[in-house]
Design brief:
The relative contact order is 0.23. This protein is mainly beta. The radius of gyration is 20 Å and the shape is elongated. The protein is built from no helices and 13 strands.
Length: about 170
């Protein structure tokens, strides 16, 4: 198996170039016949990167914010089907679930945070198909807690750094 990140060119023995411009990662077996003909075996199904998130208050470890003016929110992101050695950016934003918009505190501040991450064998589990899965945490610090009841959720986007393409999103 070989993992191909589309949007890049790959050269195969015999001079064949594989090019693609899609917004997801594929893992396929492929073969090239001896005289540069382009016989390809793409029998596997596409593997799409996935993310799932769980947000919690750093003080109490629950989904409920502490009763104090400012808190830290940790958003643990479980990812799968990433290419080891490729660099990605996870970008999170705090959302007001009732308004279906960015959470804006009484001072007019919104909260977004990005981290850059490269999955490797040391920080991920590598599957038989060559893709990586694991967890990262995006931390939102000094978040103003509203006095009125507000449901704050975290949206996360995952971008492939070389192309800047959005390859996965989690919005709930």
């Amino acid at each position: 198996h070989v993992a191909l990140m589309f949007g890049q060119d790959y050269r195969v023995e015999g001079g064949l170039t594989i090019t693609g411009h899609l917004d997801f990662c594929l893992a396929h077996n492929f073969t090239v016949t001896a005289n540069n003909t382009t016989t390809m075996n793409l029998s596997d199904t596409p593997i799409t990167p996935k993310i799932q998130t769980t947000a919690s208050d750093s003080d109490n470890g629950t989904h409920y914010l502490s009763y104090k003016e400012r808190v830290t929110i940790n958003d643990e992101i479980s990812y799968s089907n990433l290419v080891p050695g490729e660099t990605y950016t996870f970008t999170g934003s705090l959302q007001d679930a009732d308004k279906k918009a960015l959470y804006t505190d009484p001072d007019g501040n919104t909260y977004t945070k990005s981290i850059t991450y490269t999955p490797t064998a040391a920080n991920s589990t590598i599957a038989a198909d060559g893709t990586a899965s694991g967890k990262v945490i995006v931390t939102f610090t000094d978040v103003y807690v509203p006095l009125t009841k507000t449901t704050i959720v975290v949206f996360e986007d995952l971008y492939e750094n070389k192309t800047g393409i959005l390859i996965a999103a989690h919005e709930d």
